[in-house]
Amino acid sequence: MAKRLTIYYATYVYDERMHRGILHYGRSRGWRVQLLQPHAWSLVRGMKPDGLISLMEPDDDTTGMTDYVLSLGVPHVDLSYNRPEVEVPRFLPDLEDGGRQAAEHLAMLGVSCLRCVQWGETMADELRMRGFLESAEEGNLPVECLNMRHCKKEPHQSLLNFLKSAPKPVGVFCSVDQYAGRVLDICLDEGWRVPEDVAILGFYNHEIDSALAEISLSSVDIDIEGRGYKAAQALGRMIRGEDVSVEQNLVPIKGIVCRASTTSRMKDDRFVAGAQEYISSNLRKPLTVEELVGAVGMSRAALQRRFKRVLGHGVASEIKAQKMAMAKRMLRQGDETATYISEELGFPDVTQFYRVFKRETGETVGQFRKRSR
Q1: Domain 269-372 in the same topology as domain 95-221
Q2: For residue 261, how far is the Cα from the chain centroid?
Q3: Fold (CATH) for 95-221
Q4: What are the structural domain ranges in the chain?
Q5: CB 17 within 8 A of CB 225
Q6: Cis omega (within 30 of 0) on the bond before 195?
Q7: What are phi and psi of 371, to 5 degrees?
Q8: Exposed/middle/buried for 301, CB within 10 Å: 0-12, 13-18, 19+?
């Protein structure tokens, strides 16, 4: 019988979705996957696995686990931005795009401004904010950010003051779902309506945080399980002796998981909610306002008034905004030609797509693709 391989999954922050992704691949290959965590990693001291998948500890918060697993000298794939001097293949979420998608989602709710709550001064926060600020700037929405790292003495009061200072309606983006939960608690204590006054969006889509919240929390899903699977695939190739380049492999963001903390703002008006859903489902056709009015079953003037009241802009602007958001996503993430994208988004020809894209974004298609890459 072939030897059964033992793989260590060594992580300082546990997420069962990552573990599930690793196991999904590993079990198909007969691997034994052992979990190592900071409080119990020493139980395996003296043993040597056949391969290693890690979420390495940050330099300022180490228990010795990372140093130990690095000393084993086995094929190794990592899932973090920590310890950049360690040259191993890394599978990382496209956090910059996650920040962009967060800003786009909140902007579509018709908020007057954006706020961001983050731990701060980490590579992950820097990348998230880069995309978030870029998208907010494109939408001409003012943004302010609170660094919770700087509020260790009075975190609750600092967060309360930060939210009180924001004009309403405001969209609040939180770098982790736990912060989204804190923001929600403050809103409920202060009597602010969620999401009518404060729309709240978290990050990482930890379903337990949403389940425990009084109002379910929308969140950015970064496909944690998919990252685990891809990392295990790469480790399998390394164990077989294949070359795997030492680089950062960006795993695409899965998308926004919409729950009550951002969606009931539209659900309060079923016609606007229905119109938005119809637009999202028909982005790949030359959609007109007249067609949308017919699908919703309301006069054009009445639907325009409802869009203005709920979202702050008209129906045609919403169609263009959704098409441009999809176009930017395709330009950032893929290699499709502008002609292909224009056809996919229902433009009559690529020339009109070029013209609309330049007018709405201030950049040519080529300029945007080059900058976003």
Answers
A1: no
A2: 16
A3: Rossmann fold (3.40.50)
A4: 6-93+224-252, 95-221, 269-372
A5: yes
A6: yes
A7: -70, -40
A8: exposed
Select the CATH number that applies to the domain covering 6-93+224-252 from these four: 1.10.3660.10, 3.30.530.20, 3.40.50.2300, 3.30.70.270.
3.40.50.2300
**Residue type for 128, please?**
R
* 250-305 pLDDT tens trace: 999 888 888 889 875 555 577 887 888 788 888 888 888 888 888 888 888 888 88
How many whole angstroms from its chain centre is CA 219?
7
State pLDDT tens for residues 323-359. Answer: 888 888 788 777 789 999 998 888 888 999 999 888 8
- List the structure tokens of 138: 């494109």
Q: What angle do CA 363, 99, 110 make, to 5 degrees?
A: 75
What is this structure's pTM?
Answer: 0.74
Q: Options 3.90.320.10, 3.40.50.150, 1.10.10.60, 1.10.357.10; which CATH number does 269-372 get? A: 1.10.10.60
